Amino acid sequence: MSGNGTNAAQNGVKRKLKEILVSGLRLHDVAPESIADDQAIFVDGLGLDSIDALELVVLIEEHFGIAIPDEEIGRAAFASINALAEFVCAEQARSS
Amino acid sequence: MRADAAGRVVVTGLGTVNPLGTSTPAFGSALRAGTCAISPLTLFDTTGFRSVIGAQVQDIESVPLPAHVSTALRRRLSRADVFALGAAMEALADSGLDSTAPTERLGVALGGTTGGMLRTERCLQDRTNDGRRYRANALVGAPVSASADVVAQTLGIAGPRLTVSTACSSSAMSLGIALDWIRLGQCDAVLAGGSESLCATVFAGFNALHALSREPCRPFDRQRSGLSLGEGAAIMVLEDATHALARGARIHAELLDYGASADAHHLTAPHPEALGAVLAMRRALAHANLAPSDIDYVNAHGTGTPLNDASEITALHEVFDAAGGALAVSSTKSAVGHTLGAAGAIEALVTVLAVRDGFIPATVTLDEPEDPTLDFVPRTSRTASLRCALSNSYGFGGNNTSLVIGRAAESTH
Amino acid sequence: MPRNPRTDTTRVVVTGLGVVSPLGPLPDFWRRLTTGEHGIGPSDDLKTRRGTPATVARVTSWEPKEHVHVPALRRMDRLSRMIVSATRAALTDARLALTTAAADSAGMVVGTAYGNVVETDQFIRRLQARGPGLANALTFPNTVLNAPAGYAAIDRGLRGPNVTVAHGEASGELALATAYDLIRSERADVMLAGAGDELAPLVFDIYDDLGLLSPNDGQHAWSSPFDRYRNGIVLGEGAAMLVLERAEHAAARGVEPYAELRGHTAQRVAATPHDWPATAAADPGDTARQLEHLGWRPGVTDDLVISCANSTKRLDAFETANLTRLLGAAASSATVTSLRGAIGDFGGAGAMSAAAAVLALRTGDLPRLGSLREPDPTCDLRLATLTRAPPAHGFERVLVSATPRGGGCRTLLFQRA
User: Fold this and answer.
1) B75-110 burial, b for 16+ CB within 10 Å, e for fewer?
2) Domain range annotation of chain B
């Protein structure tokens, strides 16, 4: 599994993702820290829908420089904060 | 026309400026020929967009405007204003209404969404490019209500005026409200319809929603992948039937009634059971005192997005299955794209031509229907004698409107 | 077979009000109008071209979270929140808890001049600065003018006709007129009707560049319709929604209406599309004829006129001439007022005038011109000064008049139910 350095990097990414979700998707009443890492983001979790998903794709590109090429990959990555953080870190590792 | 013309509303004038023609006869020919006007856009820079196509009016300079409109005034008008004024002029001339006669009894009811946005976004580009002070007063003509003012003041129309802005159903709703005005005795006739101009802002919005198709849109096709935007205007003269008969006007068709509803579901996605669309059609039929079996043709909303077309198919089955008869359905958006605030009126005008001339325009880009149990008139238009037709428009925010258009009955004199 | 609306005797009444305004919500809105207070002050964020704080009338005493279901709130732009809040308040005030069946035939007409300018502006800024790939999917649906009406319909489950109309400074009056027509055309039993507009930097810049605003040189600008020293507009914002209802429908549920909306008029006055008419064009002949058809002749009853006078030289002069001619001999007995000194000027303000009209009919009091220093000597109208008393038995009728740029004039006639 990942070493400590990568864990720290992933935790940083998770924190940023939660902040992006709250500010970018207008979840003004949700404190970023209150979002659990394994919580489902879409449908039941935070009540987000397909337009939020589109917006999230743009936010990921803007903040991390990573493009999400198609819906299949997007759907898997958006399952939870954990999944999204893993995806982002993996993409960052690939491009560096 | 039956002897009792009381309360009936007929269409006595037609005018249009759209990507398939800058006059009604040109438009009608193009519809019969099955032409598609969707092609790469030149109105603004399409770099970086997922799609680069749309249906653009090619030759706006050639749109005839009233002689007293100076070059200077023409330059100040927005693109949408020019479309509206051109269409209004054609419709008024076609109707034979004497515009020198007192005109408090003639109103204007238009629909639109973006108004002068094309000019606005260019003006705001100054602000973006180098942050220099931009001239905000250039935006005074930007509101969507400007076109109704321009048409009324330029053509000297003194009756009530109105602009409806309900996204994609705007100019279907303006036609419906105009019908109500006439029935309530507020007007003898109304210049009713809508106008819309393409602009980068709206193109970018649909682009961000991943709603644009890379190829010309394919309504009701299994392979459909989104909509194509268009622009233009259509205006009809709606007139009280008694008034029209008294002056010997030529009657194109009858606007029998309309139905309107809201989904009350979601701002962009249609109701999963198409509740609003079904309500609008049923209300239209009930108000027109018709049964589903009286309808021979439906001019659909048919944008070509996966969600809309599926929802619309559900609605059509819900309303028409029990009727059992032969029903044709086609989408004009396959030919002129989605003209947003003008779509209701442009497509109602198509429906008037269909009913008047006895032809059904095709869904010109259709090869493989999503639902083979419905007749979507693929590729080729056909001759058909139509008694009554529906024209449907469904807007963002969930306003659904169905117009009932019927063949003008034989004159009794 | 639907009855012929032309011979129909359907009456339309007002049974509920909801207001989000620079004077606060009801009852503050009404109380402060009658005592001549205003909601004008320096802005926290808007600036004039010269960099000084703008003077505006901002909505006050309104916390969206108290009015709107919080999870639904997050997607709504600010104007939509105002309209949704006002809609909820109006339905509550009307004691109209709609069952699903009833909600099917309850609709909306919302008027607005500019719609959601703030988010449209943001969308364009970002698009132009960052390119199409980074444009906001979330913001775009809110840029349609009918987003507020859409959100309100979703919030309350209203499935009747849902219309948004735009007519500049007459947007509110047009919305009320359209809702009235829809009820009389048997398209709904209940229609929420009203209007709203939001203060936005872009709109402020337009008015500023056109030279329409009251100057702000080191002291606060002020708005005083019909004033001898008036010097321009103070922009405002807000939303007001009224519940219009078929009279029999209201009676059947035992609700006492505020007033009856007797009807409306429309008249074209000569004006260029982007300006108010000149005084010389004042000739309310058509309006007078249409009002007479609605059973109103000035001076026969105790009347109040709520004008759209907005503290500009041009419009107030036109209104003065137009109303003087319309009222004729009754110009010395009818009372004339305007809300624009209290709430500022904005497209949807006419809905607030309509709300004030029915409150005047119910309470017997009137909105007063609290900022009036000295009436314009050319104005012969009986103005609603701070000391003006209402008629002993209150008003019988209230006329709301709108003269928008472009000259498509509108009035609404309210009378005691």
Assistant:
1) eebbbbbbbbbbbbbbbbebbebeeeeebbbbbbbb
2) 9-246, 258-405
> What residues contact C270, with CB distance under 8 A and at least 6 apart?
C277, C281, C407
Asked whether C73 and C81 are in contact (CB, 8 A), the reply is yes
Looking at B102-106, C10-14, C59-63, C285-289, which range is the least confident one?
A: B102-106
All structural domains of chain C with their residue ranges: 12-252, 263-415
Among A77, A25, A70, A79, which Cα is nearest to A52's? A25
**pTM of the full predicted structure?**
0.95
What is the full DSSP assignment across C179-220? Answer: HHHHHHTTS-SEEEEEEEE---HHHHHHHHHTT-BPP-SSS-
DSSP 8-state secondary structure symbol assigned to residue C43? E
Q: Which fold has domain B9-246?
A: Peroxisomal Thiolase; Chain A, domain 1 (3.40.47)
pLDDT tens track for C144-171:
999 999 999 999 999 999 999 999 999 9
Interface test with C, best of B149, B206, B285 (most C CBs within 10 A): B149
**Which residues of B are annotated as catalytic?**
168, 301, 338
Is the CB of residue B268 less than 8 Å away from at least one CB of chain A?
yes
Which superfamily is assigned to C263-415 in CATH? Thiolase/Chalcone synthase (3.40.47.10)
The dotted CATH code for C12-252 is 3.40.47.10
Architecture of domain B258-405: 3-Layer(aba) Sandwich (3.40)
Residues 284-343 of B with CB under 8 A from C: 287, 289
Bridge partners of C307? C338
Residue of B nearest to C186 (CA): B287
pLDDT above 90: residue C74? no
* pLDDT per position as a tens digit, B282-318: 999 999 999 999 999 999 999 999 999 999 999 999 9
Q: Which two tokens stand for residue A38?
A: 């394994």
Strand-pair partners of B195:
B233
Count Cβ–Cβ pairs < 8 Å, chain B vs chain C: 241
